[in-house]
Amino acid sequence: xxxxxxxxxxxTTNTRMLNxxxxxxxxxxxxxxxxxxxxxxxxxxxRNEACGTGELERLNEELLPGCVLHRSNPNDVARVEDRxxxxxxxKENAGPTNNWMDPAEMYAKLNGILEGGMTGRTMYVxxxxxxxxxxxxxxxxxxxxxxxxxxxxxxxxxxxxKPVIDAIGDSDDFTRGVHSKVKLDxxxxxxxxxxxxxxxISLNSGYGGNVLLGKxxxxxxxxxxxxxxxxxxxxxxxxxxxxxxxxxVRYVAAAFPSACGKTNLxxxxxxxxxxxxxxxxxxxxxxxxxxxxxxxxxxxxxNPEFGFFGxxxxxxxxxxxxxxxxTKKNTIFTNVVKNLDDNTVWWEGLTDIPPTNALNWKGxxxxxxxxxxxxxxxxxxxxxxxxxxxxxxxxxxxxxxxISAIIFGGRRAKTAPLVYQSRDWNHGVFVxxxxxxxxxxxxxxxxxxxxxxxxxxxxxxxxHMGDYWGHWIEMGKKIxxxxxxxxVNWFRTNEQGKFIxxxxxxxLRVLEWILKRSHDGIDAVxxxxxxxxxxxxxxxxxxxxxxxxxxxxxxxxxxDLWKQEMENVKDxxxxxxxxxxxxxxxxxxxTENRLK
Length: 596
Ligand code: OXD
Ligand code: MN
Description:
The protein is built from 17 helices and 30 strands. By secondary structure, the protein is an alpha+beta fold. Strands 11, 12, 13, 14, 15, 16, 24, 25 and 28 form a 9-stranded mixed beta sheet that branches. Strands 1, 4, 5, 6, 7, 8, 9 and 10 form an 8-stranded mixed beta sheet that branches. It has a 5-stranded mixed beta sheet with strand order 2-3-18-23-17. Helix 2 (40-53) packs antiparallel against helix 4, helix 11 (425-433) packs antiparallel against helix 13 (465-478) and helix 16 (559-574) packs antiparallel against helix 17 (582-595). The structure holds oxalic acid (OXD) and manganese (II) ion.
């Protein structure tokens, strides 16, 4: 082991940082404090230590070099929205879509839970940056944690170590993040955000989405709040570069609720004839976009993350070969099946034939014959973005990429057509605000229960959602060259409940129309809900199951369903009281009038 383990030599003389770390240590009482420098040797030592204790397991070095398996506690396998709090000083500033607790009360409660919580453990100090260190987009943070899994995951998902400490210098402008597994007690599990103090405290969990504090906690919840103060947007969006046969690369940002295929869209493989014509795809990000207005009046985006924290089940050589390739080295797999024959991993949907000598996600002997799933449905891979075969050359750009189009989408069986375009920016904000997904017969029993998830930010907006919409409207006024705003729905079903649109790589056919609308002024059909493609303008060549009738059906707008939809939106909007921007009410009224 190197001398970096078990030492507590601080990497900084920043007294405010040191005092805060000292205060946390006084409460949590770790045995030692270790600063994470980012040195690969230090990370390797920690990997060895965790493999020694069983926290991690090494996988087949030839087939999966540098990869490890991690199992979380079975009571701790997903984000916990009911235990997630926005602790603004005024309750009304958290808004109706967030849990709230008074900050003083929450600090007192959490300090009580954390008391002695790290006894017998090391507290690691992880300096991390969201986006490229030194770039105008960068936000710095320190995460204190008693988990080596968290240290190694943060080293994949964010830029860490000495350069971040140097960039912070003596400044107090960094996010304070505290994570402790404590006892992994679900009753005392809290993911608490203090936006006005730039602070996050996450206790009693070891699951990625709750404990990798740079991701949902900082890059969305706190960053959305900071974006409102500072005039930019933090969004739950993938960023995709599309190169056409003329060699022009254009970028779109797209927001979808969880489980709607964001990672697949972000890394799609174009249909064969598109590849032949010269189309190429570049992944800039699969989950989060930070958007700022550039000097040229366009909207510029970066992905503040450094890796992918993707859902494993369903990822395979057909659905997302790029993601699969990305997980082939230096990846942490969580809660997947371990194949004992060759010390590799497996999950439902990876291959048709499951391993026969295997352990399930809980580490118990398992075969598919048991009828139980081997991998947890929310099992994950944490993989470096640099592994991705289609990662964008602009991935590490300090100025980001210019956004041509913003795309919203949900999972709707009937109401939303394959694609439509908003009439202008404010209408686009309206379209984003009414985003929704429906439960399907297969899942919940009740068909068509609509869950609104505005801009896919329902679990991630760090302040009042009404003010967030207001901020979108204000941003629109400041963007000289606004991206066009679209809505897509890959999930329309036929009478038999089967998806009509093939999805995956074929979604590029729709993206092509979106780019033509954004740049080339191609004609569109004016409908009550927005601008729609002429059916002939969506390329359906070489598709077996989509002919002219099918595409017309996919683009059909059922006026009665949309009238009902507007009634439902009215009820939804009523929950936001006087913080609902008047512009959105105007858009709702205008849509109703067009539907008459
Ligand atoms: C995620 C999510 O993990 O949206 O990205 O839940
Ligand atoms: Mn997400």
